[in-house]
Amino acid sequence: MNELERTHPQSNPSSEPSAGPSGSSGLNELRRQAAALAAAGDAAIQKALSTNSEAFLASMRQEGGQ
Amino acid sequence: MSQRLFGLETEYAFALLDRQGRRVNQAQAIDWLVKAARQRLVHLPDINSNGIFLTNGSRLYIDCGAHPEYAGPELADPWDAARYIKAGELTLQDIAADLVSKHDGVAQACFFRQNVDYSGSGSTWGSHESYLHKASPELFQRHLLPYLATRLIYTGAGGFDPTYPGIRFLLSPRVPYLVAEVSGESTQCRGVLHTKNESLSSEGYNRLHLLCSESLFSEWAIFLRVGVTAVIVAMIEAGLRPGDLIKLSKPLEAMRLFAEDPSCRQVAAMARGEPNTAVTIQRRYLEMAQSHLGESFMPPWAAEVCTQWRRALDLLESGSPDSVASRLDWAIRWSVFSRFLQREGYSWESVQDWNRLIESPPKKLEGRKNPFEMLEIDGVIPPEAVLDYLLEGIGPRLREHGIPLNEVRKFQSLRSRLFELDTRFGQLGGAGLFSQLDQAGVLDHHLQGVDNFAHARDFPPALGRAKLRGDTVRLCGRTNASRNGYLCDWSAIWDMPQKRYLDLSDPFAQQTDWKTPPSPKSEPASRPSSIERHLRVLEMLHRDRRPPAPF
């Protein structure tokens, strides 16, 4: 099997995150995206946050580093 | 068009937890990690450390502070920067699974891609970049520093300042730990511009090594961080002098101002003329790059980098942070934390009010960095009494503003929970906040072509010495027997039994070239300079002795 490193040819310019819509429909879409991010954030926080943050931070203590 | 090479090193926070949620002794945890890595991964041992080199050309080892470091292979395009960071993540997640399955006492193996500690240790660890170049290193202070002081508007990971007694969000949480504009140190007195120039290559090549930034998750942000920096290094190498047009009056102070402003409207004093925003300064560099696109010194992907760069600046200028809330690491964090504050009954404005209240501790605490934590660490006052001690100073102000005393405890709790959320954001695997948001499909950071991560985990890039290194590791590193007698380095692979070495001193090497090392008795001038570093190995080869095994 000939594995490709990646599927993107350097000549393809369409590699950016979405441009984002403009105008009133654009604003509605931005609001929808913001609402979706907020809802997902709520769910993620609910899942991730412990009942004792100070204990968590102490248990993950890191020393030193560059 | 000119090829460029660069690389990324990622230091991870690491902890093993037992079934009761207690931390396994770190020395023990590191020992298990190293053994698990060696058992799972096809590798050759690192001649210089306790680490190993992998089949994709990267190195995995334990850096100072007991941080596992994944130093990716030499890369030739910025899309691969994001791919090989993800490759490192996949490798560590495989090892994490092994640690849990092989040790009864281990319930969780946690890796975090972040760069500051929130437990009060004052620690920070790195996300380093290396750029191969032939410019005079002295040029970077003048011509690169303004760029480094401002790029955090899209390269910042976002996070909090644990050295501050209140809650201070920063676009770049490493900034408080950068205490000099220029420095050769990496663990104390860190500088925005690091002057270390350990080439790891043949003569004529230099290596710009940067440690002023943080690890990122956004593919777009990673692409910009590496691609834009590589383009600017290419410009400086070619003789362009962007710093002649752009000079900050106080770069370090400017960086701190920019780091505290999610709107990206903050201005900083210039050496000449009106104060400028970070976006404006970045546009000056972009304009210079765009005016030289197509010239021979530019890498083949420079046009695409400029397109993305301009896009990022346009978005930041048009409505930061909302305009980039789903795309850049710091803005994603800002959005999530803002939502959390709102749910808890706070806003960034009310947080600022609290900050002002506790910024002026009682006279007895003057000079202490963080009243909440320093007193507990010192053991001077029991934790439960710290708040009362603080209230000696701020109590009157609380009464003046009609604020109940228990609100102070709530704010302290809020601070701790935000710190935990920030830590969780960088956690690898499904538990991490970024990972959850990405899985939910609410982020917009992906780049077409940043994919096939499994391939990047196992195979090196196609261009340069990383391919030779990775292929040789794959060939020779499968078993203890096959790797016996081999030692690996960035610039060579040593075959002790056959008394030869694979010369990787040319970063762009494409042909496997096994050589017989010169005799230690030969004149120094006749030895390749890249081999001088391993004179000890040469001597041992000729005396038919084995070098000490890495631990």
Please describe the topology of this protein.
The complex is a heterodimer of chains A (66) and B (551).
Chain A: H1 23-48, H2 53-59
Chain B: E1 6-11, E2 13-17, H1 26-40, E3 43-45, E4 52-54, E5 59-63, E6 67-71, H2 78-102, E7 108-112, E8 127-133, H3 139-143, H4 145-150, H5 152-155, E9 159-160, E10 169-170, E11 178-183, E12 190-194, E13 206-213, H6 219-237, H7 251-259, E14 267-268, E15 276-277, H8 278-291, H9 302-319, H10 329-343, H11 348-358, H12 371-378, H13 383-400, H14 406-425, H15 433-439, H16 453-458, H17 465-476, H18 480-483, E16 486-488, E17 492-495, E18 500-503, E19 514-515, H19 529-532, H20 535-542
Parallel strand pairs in B: 11-12
Antiparallel strand pairs in B: 1-6, 1-8, 2-7, 3-4, 4-5, 5-6, 8-13, 9-10, 14-15, 16-17, 17-18, 18-19
Helix pairs in contact in B: 1-2, 2-6, 6-9, 8-9, 10-14, 12-13
